[in-house]
Amino acid sequence: MSIESIKIPPHARMRRMRSTPTLRSLVRENSVCASDLIYPMFVCDGLNRREEISSMPGIARLSLDQYEIEILKLAQKGLKSVLLFGIPAHKDALGSAAFDENGCVQRAIRMTKEIAPEIVVVSDVCVCEFTDHGHCGVVENAKVLNDASLSLLSNMALSHAEAGADIIAPSAMMDGQVAAIRHALDSSGYESLPIMAYSAKFSSSFYGPFREAAQSTPQFGDRKTYQMDAANGREAMEEIKLDIEQGADIVMVKPGLAYLDIVKKASELFSKPIAVYNVSGEYSMVKAAAAAGFIDEKSVAMECLLAFKRAGASLIISYFTPQALEWIEETD
Ligand code: PBG
């Protein structure tokens, strides 16, 4: 049968609504805007330090004076929210710098609330950047102890609350951490401070570049005894359920791109807002491929951010945030 002999035209013409940019925009189901985005930043002790992370072009560890310049610039660009990580000058077995009221994160929180109070400050609560062994809790006989780590994490959360954080984000993957932190916050008068729980956090090689940035590579073993097995989707729902029961206000799936099925499932099963972390390795891959001329950075990055929204996330933590703020503006 030749092409000419087919007489019946298709009755479903999906292309009708694709013929112009305006028609396409009228039927567009999802979009990315500035208020969806949270920018992860690394602050460190010292003065006048701006240490570029070689595996994450455009990202640097910043001392507070440099952080101040950066945050003012980003506020001008319309940044809505920042997620803070600290890299202290001195690390020890218990990560004491993590709950020092004059630690770099605590100072960065106070500074942000002073110079750009409209920016929502989310603070990461985990001790791996502060411990000399690089694990996310108390270590004894080469084991990461669960219950002994809870008071450490609660103290850290409390010190962030006292510094003025707007959202507390526990990421250590210790069982019961959300309940412990909720209790500590409530007992100190911070019952209105929200918790964004890293609920379904997988043990992932996509965190590689972050560990260069945060100097937090575990000195022995790995994180597989506390972070989730990449093979498990149903277990992720159990983690999320438990965190919601313990008082999480926002639940997170991390990493993002290779885990969109988890984001989708979680958004269908739970009614709490879902956050997704577009992690360091995902950022580095796009950067490296774009630098090699293999892909177009802007359109690939924006396509990824859109995919998170389509999968059901309401918040996206991404290193692309500063660029995305400009890109959103351009395509508006
Ligand atoms: C700390 C933490 C990690 C990330 C966020 N918080 C690293 C890890 O678990 O080793 C990774 C973020 C990224 O890769 O961008 N627990």
Describe the structure.
By secondary structure, this protein is an alpha/beta fold. The protein is built from 11 helices and 12 strands. The strands form 2 sheets. Strands 1, 2, 3, 4, 5, 8, 9, 10, 11 and 12 form a 10-stranded mixed beta sheet that branches. It has a two-stranded antiparallel ribbon with strand order 6-7. Helix 4 (147-163) packs across helix 5. The radius of gyration is 21 Å and the shape is globular. The N and C termini lie far apart (47 Å). The protein binds ligand PBG. The site of ligand PBG has 12 residues, from helix 6.
Topology:
Blueprint: H1 21-26, E1 37-44, E2 50-52, E3 60-63, H2 64-77, E4 81-87, H3 104-115, E5 120-125, E6 138-140, E7 143-145, H4 147-163, E8 167-170, H5 177-187, E9 196-201, H6 208-214, H7 234-245, E10 250-254, H8 260-269, E11 274-278, H9 280-291, H10 297-311, E12 315-318, H11 321-331
Parallel strand pairs: 1-3, 1-4, 1-12, 4-5, 5-8, 9-10, 10-11, 11-12
Antiparallel strand pairs: 2-3, 6-7
Bound molecules: ligand PBG.
The site of ligand PBG has 12 residues, from helix 6.
